[in-house]
Amino acid sequence: MFFRLFILLPVVTVVLFLYGAIVNIGYIEENRCRMTYMFEHPQYTRITVQGNERFPKYGLYAYSEGFITQRVQQRSFNGAPVLFIPGSGGSYKQVRSLASVALRKGIDNNWQAHLDYFSVDLNEEFSGVFGGYLHDQTAFIELCIQEIIRLYGARGRSTRIFVVGHSVGGKLAQAIVADGRESIVRHVAGIVTISAPVDKPVVLLDHYHQSFYNRIEQAWKVNRTISTGLKAAAGKQLDGILFITIGGGIRDIIVHDGLTSSQFADLHVMTHNIPKVWLSVDHLCAMWCLQFVLVMNRFFYSMIIPNGRNSYGFVEEKVKQFEQAKRFLVQSADDDDDDAFPNRKEDAERIIIHHPEQEDWIEDIRRSYTERYRGGLERTRVQMIRIVPDKPAHRFLRVEVLNSEQTTNWLSGCAAIEVYGNSRMCQTSYSLANYTLQVPSSKFDRLGALLDLHELKQRNPRWTHVLIKIPRTFKPVQFSVDVFNPAQREINITMPYWFDYRKWTILQDASQDDSFYRITIDAMTQTHQTIALDLKAISCDGVKGTSVVKVHVPWAEGYDRYAFQEDLNQTTVYIYPPIEKPQGKEPLPIYVDVYFTPGCRYHIRYGQSLRVSVARVVQQYFMLIPAHCLALLLLAFKDQLSQTTPDEPAFVVGKLRSSLTKPGPLLVLLLGTSLLGKFLSLFKAIPRIESFSTPLLVSILIHLTSLGVLLIATLALWGAIAFCANFAHKIILRLIALPIPVMSSTFLSCIHKFPLAIAVLLVAIALTACGGVSLLCAAAVYFVLLSKAYEDYLENFVFHTARRIAARLFGAREREGADSGSTARRRRRHRPANETGDELMVINFHLPLFFLVILLALLNVPSVITWAKNYHYSNTLQPDPSLVPALAVLACLAVVWQLNTPRNLYGYEVLAALLVIVAFVSVLYCQVHVYRLNYSVAIVFIAITLHQIFAPKRREIEEATDSEEKEQNEDNNKDAC
């Protein structure tokens, strides 16, 4: 029963992993981005780049529409230049949304201040999974920048460019200034990366990626100050470049939010925290989401200044650029303190002059109320909120204004000691605009503020009131006031245990006047931990239930998240830390601020979300599966080779499926890597262990998923060998597609009879085309050999069974049977057989080797795709990260296929020990650096091949040989009679 449950558990985890992948694709959050439409047909004019003959695959284009195209074709550029770099597999045409909106804005400005958008064509290469072309792409982009500068003629010497990079294009944008070339650096005003893996790649499938990232990091460390925020002193060469990183949020399933920030960035923001956007966008949607495109172009336009006669450029001072970035991309507020509620340390200095003859001054003694004016206001209204010190119930003020035409200086404080008519008032007040925040909304201008009235009174002892000023308007307007005790609005919860998925009610029925609650979540430190917060509007007073949730993670600067829902009575917000809490820091809770619509009664529940937790594990840790698959496969292979003791003369190979279903290898791998990780981390000279940073629960899930994948693959392969061998032969004949059928059959026969020649042919393919292609072909050839071995096994098994039945029924053997039996025994003398027969032991030995070939081929599929995509430029992939491991494995296969393996040799216990070492190294050092698995597999094949060639043979079983000869003599005597 235990073994059955153990087999079932990995299969369940595979299903759970697939479920997480499906959730990632489209079941976390809906896409609420609006499309960006063109007014005219977009035109992409190719710009001739000096030195383009070195990179014929690449190109530079300028965007235009309508009559603007004629100017572009005449090479007439006088706007501020912006260069767009697409990402992995991206097209230069992805600049269309950004450029089209900017072009419409330029036309509206009568073509005064405007932007010139350029885009780089990188042949849509998959540079995210193949890093061999990153150096060439960087060199070509540098040529493009120099060419753009030449397009602006005499003023090109002072022209500065903003570079926008999407996905891997953001890393390329960072790379073009890494070398510190003065001709490039002085012309780059700023870099904006969108959904880009800046400091860490998503997955490392070749060493070119690793060296590329290392080179850029070292160059930026030398030439750039490592800090957050604006650099006070631009002492280093790259300090003068504004560097902004932007992440997409929970909808970006390719580059998760934890990878989008950089230690070198002046500013990091997420799209769900950018004012006027407030949305999480997926990886491709970031390039056409209208809300985000509008904000980006407003930011670029805000930095345009005249640069000569009828020409424009970007402001050169980085301080001014940074101010505009904060203005358009950051939700500025005074809630940066670590206290339970925000406190401002400086008062606003702007003075507001009031005109009481044109205003209505009204003071309401209620602590919580909402006023709506659907027909607008005939006179300016000044709502007075009294400051009552030393009373906890009057400590905090939450105020919100909806659809007011005055978006600045609408909140102020004063000492109301003057009288006008029958109302108290003040002639002047001091603006509290620095406390105000834009509240996410897609329909109205919504402003809000949260004030500590007691602290405000301490810093301004003369103040008596806080003022809300709403100007005269004909539009419907609304404001709400909520004065409360913060202790009554704070809810403390703790992250549930990993196995606890119950729902808990934390707010049964909030009052209609309650507009704010703060929820603090303790013990949430790991990125896969997720809480689902359910907000339900029980009843609303004539309005739709609208909720706004702000998530603040203290250790993740720039990752504040705003989530809002409109016209919905119930919504679910998923709360998780975007990056793991750094070790050594004091435990800090995650703050969740909930803003309610006045007039609605809300019900709040929370619980751990299994679906999103699994989805985030899949998103962040999927690249760990190959290392764990290899480790488990090697441990199972070790178990197969260890079933024969050294003193036994006959070597027997166990079954792969039986070895995989044993819990021993899994437990050894889990405990061994955990203990080794902690032990080896004590030595600074030893490289950092990759598995040490992975949570234990995630490691167990990855282990079980990998084991489930291997079990399912083993069963599928046995089914393919047993039932589809003939069908597979036909498919291979179709793939060979030789014009003469006889030649196809002859070629397939050569695979069976001359595997060495086939291996040599595969080596030739690796040298002339791509190592990954040869590995895929080797996997197909290996399957043919395995299916042939299974056919031989079935033939001998059926004949042997029939012979035994005939002997029992008739007491004698037919002559043909005797001859065939003798032939079969002579065939088995070449190698001692186990119970199931010689051919089945061959399959058991080669099955894990076949899986290793398949794993190696899958790891190098990106090289195959790149080779196929660039075939018309070059027949051979250069550089080819798959070539060295492919040649090593193919050379070993040439020997293994030719020899009568497995041979009856000494030293299998030493080979098994080596497999254990490689298995542990794969988990400790190859989880993140996936490309290292190529060399792990190559080492295994080399070790097996050398063992099969040079290991000494075991002694033959004399007794078994004598009994076979006696049995043969008896058969001959019976036949003679």
Helix-residue proportion: 40-55%
Distance between the ends: 55 Å
Instruction: Please list the strands of the largest sheet in the order they lie side by side.
Output: 1-2-4-3-5-6-7-8
The shape, in one word, is: globular
Largest sheet: 8 strands, mixed
Low confidence ranges: 335-348, 740-744, 812-818, 822-837, 957-962
Q: Structural class of the helix and strand makeup?
A: alpha+beta
Query: What is the CA-based Rg, rounded?
Result: 36 Å
Number of strand elements: 32
Instruction: Assess the beta-strand content as a share of residues.
Output: 15-25%
Mean pLDDT over all positions: 84
Q: How many individual helices?
A: 26
